[in-house]
Amino acid sequence: MADASPPPTLFSPARFGELALANRVVMAPLTRNRAVAGLVPSPLAAAYYAQRAGAGLIVTEATQVSRGAQGYLDTPGIYSPEQVAGWRAVTDAVHASGGRIVVQLWHVGRISHASLLPDGVQPVAPSAIRANAKTFTADGFVDVSPPRALALDEIPGVVEEFRSAARNAIQAGFDGVEIHGANGYLIDQFLRDGANRRDDAYGGSIENRTRFLVEVVQAVADEIGNGRVGVRLSPVTPAGDLGDSDPQPLFERAVERLDALGIAYIHMIEGATGGDRGNVAFDYDALRRRFKGAWIVNNGYDRTMALAAIDTGRADAVAFGVPFIANPDLPERLRQEAALNRADPDTFYGGGAEGYTDYPTLEDASAPA
Ligand code: 8OZ
């Protein structure tokens, strides 16, 4: 007899590896550029994330694994004791509110500017190919700096940065980590041939281009346990001026290799990040068939699409980005089919409490004035 438990809905609990989720509404990673001195998370971050603890899982904003991993102004890190202490306040607040939270570990690679890097050094990348992309610095939006190619003997050191950031994450009280393999940043630059022209063990064949991803995930899993590790991928997004000549077999193999590592979940951005879901024909189901862990989908989902994704079994959870900025109680609003607050793009990046911790819940809205 098959398992008699009812099929899950968007609001059913789930277990992804070692992560126990109260529901299948995930808060996607959202860059907010509000870190304070030392790239420590804002003192407001604890309240911001705790307000959103009704999510089955919170993925933090992308967070640098080292000083050299930064590509934008005022994004937080997780490599110094002060940053770990700042994140501890966040994880304590989320856990006190009954939530679960993982930190997204990030290295931007070529998407950076010398003014953001220690001693104004060049950004690093698989190959010395500059992206036609801008980043945000103290001087506003500027073209990214020309990168230099990582030497073969430097790569293990970058892998170690991810490992030590994962160790710090556990020390900071996180339930796990999500490795940022998406959106044209360093791991994605190794994966896709638009940025990787290496002729050593990290370039050329699919096996070689997936090597850096696998080494990072292996190191992090060795450090904190594979059941606490997720990976975000975006096979066809043009973000960061990155593309690949044949993404289907590349990402099928990447997912197979992640499956072999037994990680908790894959977080799949479908289409162009924050944009057209159908920019390129791509068979996501062929990827999912290669992975036994949990499958989180993302990009432009509304309530109807999210319910259907779980009901049909196409996904195990759905991640929402912008709707979570404006709706701290998003899972409750989805449950009740309540109206959603509209997000204000002017307060997405930088600033203080406005547009960060001041969006009302349904309860706030119904309270007498
Ligand atoms: C928006 C602005 C800056 C960075 C990503 C980490 O797209 C980002 C990001 C998003 O993954």
Could you describe the 3D structure shown?
There is one protein chain. The chain is α/β, with parallel strands linked by helices and 369 residues long. The protein has a single domain, classed as Alpha-Beta Barrel (TIM Barrel), CATH 3.20.20.70. It has helices at residues 45-51, 81-96, 155-171, 186-191, 206-209, 211-224, 247-260, 284-288, 303-311, 322-326, 330-336, 362-366; strands at residues 14-16, 19-21, 25-27, 57-64, 101-106, 124-125, 134-137, 140-143, 148-149, 176-180, 229-233, 265-269, 294-298, 317-320. Strand 1 and strand 2 form a beta hairpin. Helix 3 (155-171) packs parallel to helix 6.
Fold topology:
Blueprint lengths: L13 E3 L2 E3 L3 E3 L17 H7 L5 E8 L16 H16 L4 E6 L17 E2 L8 E4 L2 E4 L4 E2 L5 H17 L4 E5 L5 H6 L14 H4 L1 H14 L4 E5 L13 H14 L4 E5 L14 H5 L5 E5 L4 H9 L5 E4 L1 H5 L3 H7 L25 H5 L3
Parallel strand pairs: 3-4, 3-14, 4-5, 5-10, 6-9, 10-11, 11-12, 12-13, 13-14
Antiparallel strand pairs: 1-2, 7-8
Helix pairs in contact: 1-2, 3-6
Bound molecules: 2-Phenylacrylic acid.
2-Phenylacrylic acid binds next to loops.
